[in-house]
């Protein structure tokens, strides 16, 4: 595997889930694979889980790991071509990328959406430059439009906790005080469409996800109807994807607190489990009672990030 951005990159999803189970049962079984190999993790944005779980996964595989926080100590990077660099940016990404590539075997990149220019974000302008100029396999640690390590961990978690063969999984928008990217809901939708689940998306009008990700999933604007009988409730805020009106891309269209997941919302479900990628803002996305309940999967879900990362890094090492 040379890149990891979309669910298709894994090939047969059932085989990948079986591999995840095997890796989870024997996470130090492939130490020789990563010996004398180096993973470079590059962060343009903050992280807790991705940083820790991906480093842990690489260490499980016997790798050395270098972490670069671009905004904490590195030269400020120019990302556009054709500019006169007379501002505060000292180095161009087009030199920085091959230099970074020369010190590692694999690269993980976190670079969130700017939420200002839809075409720029949805073209994945930054990470595609890493793919093109680093000379190394590159995987997403949340890019402008996708967060596949999260969605893979979410699917592993659903497989582990489902009580019926084909569970009902509901992705619900919830309110937030800041404009957030669509990477998490995009990938979650893409992965649920590829999995054997009954998948429903619910959000206020205007928050329609890009058709590339939501595909033929059922979209239900009535949150109560959507949640009825749900086995898994996946809450997430996202800003306007600009599908209907590109001028609204990245805007907050609603802060409707009736969408916050509380015990009443969960009472509409089939004793459903609560999921969120974290970090989560209590009181906006979810109440304390729900996130602390026995049906909350947020901690095992985060723990499975180590497993999704280990499968992906293992496959990249195998293809070196
Ligand atoms: N990697 C998981 C989510 C990261 C990001 N959340 C955030 O930026 C939340 C920040 C805050 O709550 O202030 C997002 O939604 O894509
Ligand atoms: N879920 C997730 O990616 O968390 P971090 O942003 O803390 O890495």
Would you give an account of this structure?
Residues 184-308 form the Aspartate/ornithine carbamoyltransferase Asp/Orn-binding domain. It holds the Pfam family OTCace. N(2)-succinyl-L-ornithine binds at residues 142, 176, 236, 281. Homotrimer. Carbamoyl phosphate binds at residues 47-50, 75, 110, 147-150, 277-278, 305. By secondary structure, this protein is α/β, with parallel strands linked by helices. The chain has two domains: 1-145 and 304-316, Rossmann fold, CATH 3.40.50; 149-300, Rossmann fold. Helix content is 35%, strand content 15%. It contains 13 helices and twelve strands. The chain has helices spanning 13-25, 49-60, 93-101, 118-122, 125-133, 148-161, 183-194, 211-214, 223-227, 263-267, 288-291, 298-303, 305-318, and strands at residues 3-4, 38-43, 64-69, 77-78, 91-92, 106-110, 138-140, 168-173, 198-202, 218-219, 232-236, 273-275. A five-stranded parallel β-sheet has the order 1-7-6-2-3, with helices on both faces. Strands 10-9-8-11-12 form a five-stranded parallel β-sheet. It has a two-stranded parallel ribbon with strand order 4-5. Helix 8 links the parallel strand 9 and strand 10 (218-219). Helix 1 (13-25) crosses helix 13 and helix 6 (148-161) crosses helix 13 (305-318). The longest helix has 14 residues, at 148-161. The chain is globular and about 55 Å long. The N and C termini lie close together (9 Å).
């Amino acid at each position: 595997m040379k890149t990891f951005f979309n669910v298709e990159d894994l090939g047969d999803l059932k085989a990948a889930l079986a591999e995840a189970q095997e890796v989870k049962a024997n996470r130090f079984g492939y130490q020789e694979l990563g010996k004398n190999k180096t993973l470079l993790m590059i962060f343009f944005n903050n992280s807790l889980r991705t940083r820790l779980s991906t480093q842990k996964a690489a260490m499980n595989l016997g790798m050395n790991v270098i972490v670069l926080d671009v905004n904490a100590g590195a030269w400020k990077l120019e990302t556009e071509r054709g500019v006169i660099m007379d501002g505060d940016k000292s180095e161009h990404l087009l030199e920085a990328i091959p230099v970074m590539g020369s010190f590692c075997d694999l690269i993980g990149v976190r670079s969130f959406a700017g939420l200002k220019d839809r075409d720029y974000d949805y073209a994945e302008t930054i990470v595609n430059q890493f793919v093109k100029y680093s000379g190394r396999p590159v995987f997403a640690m949340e890019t402008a439009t996708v967060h596949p390590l999260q969605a893979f961990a979410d699917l592993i978690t659903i497989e582990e906790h489902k009580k019926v063969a084909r569970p009902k999984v509901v992705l619900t928008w919830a309110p937030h005080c800041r404009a957030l990217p669509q990477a998490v809901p995009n990938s979650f939708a893409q992965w649920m469409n590829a999995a054997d689940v009954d998948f429903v998306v619910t959000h206020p009008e205007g928050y329609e996800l890009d058709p590339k990700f939501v595909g033929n999933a059922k979209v239900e604007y009535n949150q109560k109807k959507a949640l009825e009988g749900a086995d898994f409730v996946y809450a997430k805020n996202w800003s306007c994807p600009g599908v209907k009106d590109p001028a609204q891309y990245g805007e907050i269209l609603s802060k409707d607190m009736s969408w916050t997941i509380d015990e009443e919302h969960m009472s509409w479900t089939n004793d459903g489990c609560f999921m969120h990628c974290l970090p989560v803002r209590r009181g906006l996305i979810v109440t304390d009672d729900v996130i602390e309940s026995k049906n909350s999967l947020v901690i095992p879900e985060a723990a499975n990030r180590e497993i999704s990362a280990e499968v992906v890094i293992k496959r990249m090492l195998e293809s070196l």
